[in-house]
Write a structure and sequence with these properties.
The protein is 70% helix and 0% strand. The longest helix has 30 residues, at 131-160. The chain contains 6 helices and no strands. It is mostly helical and 165 residues long. The protein has one domain.
């Protein structure tokens, strides 16, 4: 990895973190639209962005826990970040699997993985008496927000291709 790539990774992480913290009321909790998750679509066009998005998610969750704006606390720094890493990696991995020239599996990766990981995390923390129902409710809520972010990210990918290489 060269200095230019490391700088790109740091910039992506910074953008993810700043966007998430500025929009903190929408970033954390049981009903969330983490707009910065739009960046999980960057691995469609730039592989090192996997690390930038992952680092940005980790910093967002960690800072949110320290500031008290992240109600899930420090557990989100591990579980939420794992979901984002796997989602970004999956986005890259499935980029060539297209239906009508749309990388459907890449788009679905962040939605499905956040449904599972973050839905389970939120169910465990906020619905411990009924984990199955809590998982379905929390996971669906997260998946809806993630769908909004991912569609936004996908729509921004074509204009971004000019700037990232």
């Amino acid at each position: 990895m060269n200095t230019k790539t490391l700088t790109h990774i740091a910039m992506i992480a910074a953008v993810y973190t700043v966007v998430s913290l500025v929009l903190a009321p929408f970033t954390y909790g049981t009903i969330q639209v983490r707009v910065a998750e739009a960046l999980t679509m960057l691995p469609l066009i730039y592989v090192p962005s996997i690390w930038g998005v992952t680092l940005g998610c980790f910093l967002t969750n960690l800072i949110g826990a320290f500031m008290g704006t992240n109600p899930t606390g420090f557990i989100d720094a591990i579980i939420g970040t794992s979901a984002t890493f796997l989602a970004a990696y999956g986005t890259h991995y499935f980029r060539d699997k297209k239906i009508k020239n749309i990388p459907i599996l890449s788009i679905l990766c962040p939605i499905i993985l956040n449904f599972i990981f973050v839905g389970a995390e939120l169910a465990y923390l906020f619905n411990p008496d009924n984990l199955v129902v809590g998982f379905l409710i929390q996971g669906t809520s997260v998946a809806i927000g993630e769908t909004i972010s991912v569609v936004l990210g996908y729509l921004l990918m074509n204009p971004m291709k000019r700037f990232i290489r």
